[in-house]
Amino acid sequence: MVDVERAAEAGRRASSRVSEEGAGWSCSQIGTFQALRPSRTGFSWLRPAVLWRSRNEILAQIFGDPSNEVRARWIMARRAQGADAGFRIRPPVGDGYSFLIVGDTGEGDASQYAVVPGLLKIGAETSFAVIASDVIYPTGSGNEYPDKFFRPYKDYPAPIYAIPGNHDWYDGLGGFMRVFCDAPALEARAAGFSLSPAGLRGLLWKKPEPIDEARLAAARALRARPEQRAAQPAPYWVIELPGLLLVGIDTGIRGTLDREQGEWLRETSRADPRPKILITGKPIYDRNTYHPCPIDGGGTVDDIVRDPACNYVAAIGGDTHNYQRYPVDVGGRVIQYVVSGGGGAFMHATHTIPRVDVGGVHEDDFRCYPLRGDSLSFYSKLYRRRLRMRWLYLTPDQGLVLMSRQIGNTPPRRPGTGEAPTVDGDPQTPLDGQDGEGRDGGRNGGVASAGQPGSPPAQGPVKITARMKWAARVLGGWPMPFRLPVGRTFHRWFSELSDWDTPPFFKSFLHLSVESGVLRVRCFAATGCLAQEIQPPVEDEFTIQL
């Protein structure tokens, strides 16, 4: 039995905000996750076959996303099969309970399995887990669930629910519905050729793969204990808990809701007064940008989240493969908007996130993992090797100071020492709710100046050179002197094509607990190093009064 409170206390002292070791930079021994992997073959987005199988993403952008139409057929079929009319799930929990949320899991390689030991340790006493987006890469095929779902989580003792991500939809949601809803495949519909966008899309559209039922049955045996079994009613649902509702929505490929799901979301949100957490396949706030998620017929998902009558306290989304948190003031109450997509897929860079100001959120109140400086350092190391350009490499200290200079706050680790910084000479704990990348951004009299971009970093042994500045520019951490969208290009494409199978991985998952009317959310990290398996670091923590 694991005492999560004690583990969290130790995890705060072992995070990347305290030391380079906590970030996984001094990885003297790789974790035990290697023994869990079915093979040493890594998953790579550089393979032409993988990119071709994932073509539905591009086709949906060009010719339109059919997800809403197909989802309507799935919902009609589920209702005919007797699914709960409100798509309700009622897991057995007591007054005090806890659960996990892990996003974007299913690459089936080292980065996914590296999360498993810490998840099993911290989640040993939880009542259930939720996978938020992209259960299976690259196309959600039911034939890939054995090694990318059942095997890694075979020892998790409780039920696992999920909402689909865009990659799960590349298979027409067939694999997802078969595994999580125990639903048979939809009947194929013949489509005649036409020059309409839908007709042209159908010429190249990847069709669902027939599922090997014998192999799937053998995989289900890995999670066959009664306490592990669960069948959810649909790809979107509501989990009813004492004092709290979890509302999961299906955003398809392009991040929209069909009219029927939108009406269900409005009715579900307004009918029950309990506080609610939205779990969505696409985050509403991400990389200092706002994505309210449109609903067919009018309105947005965030309109519902912001409605005081609906009583949402948080919205947690996957799809982006890192951790971010934006506490947004909405009419005098704070809603926590969280990105939690670090459950196993390649890491999306955080050093390309500009100084935060979206939704009225101050940079000092923003959190992310990995730290921007660690992200910059890691990608510099990766591309130095791949491009054979030694001058690109930036040490973790250099990365921290460069990003501090660009963002305008103080590094969370004192460069050159690996220690937490001080404010007015007083050491600060790594989870003092100050800023996302550093310590107080200058607002509380710390070593940073007025907290504006370009403020000098904390004093330390790192001197910024012209070589370091150009390396940061090439890697998207600093702006180019001419207009070139390096940051967005790096985040969207370079990150995806830069998957790796050696630590540190900078993965994460959420542990949520409810006790005495208080919801506590902790972001635990997984680096792939043995030290962080034994003691999973806590990279962020916040509470919400219910």
From TrEMBL:
Alphabetical list of Gene3D superfamilies matching this protein: 3.60.21.10
Listed GO MF terms: hydrolase activity
A Pfam family that the UniProt record links to this protein: Metallophos
Domain of life: Bacteria
Full protein name: Calcineurin-like phosphoesterase domain-containing protein
Annotated region (Disordered), positions in chain: 406-461
Domain Calcineurin-like phosphoesterase, first and last residues per copy: 98-176
Organism: Sphaerisporangium krabiense
Stored InterPro entries: Calcineurin-like_PHP, Metallo-depent_PP-like
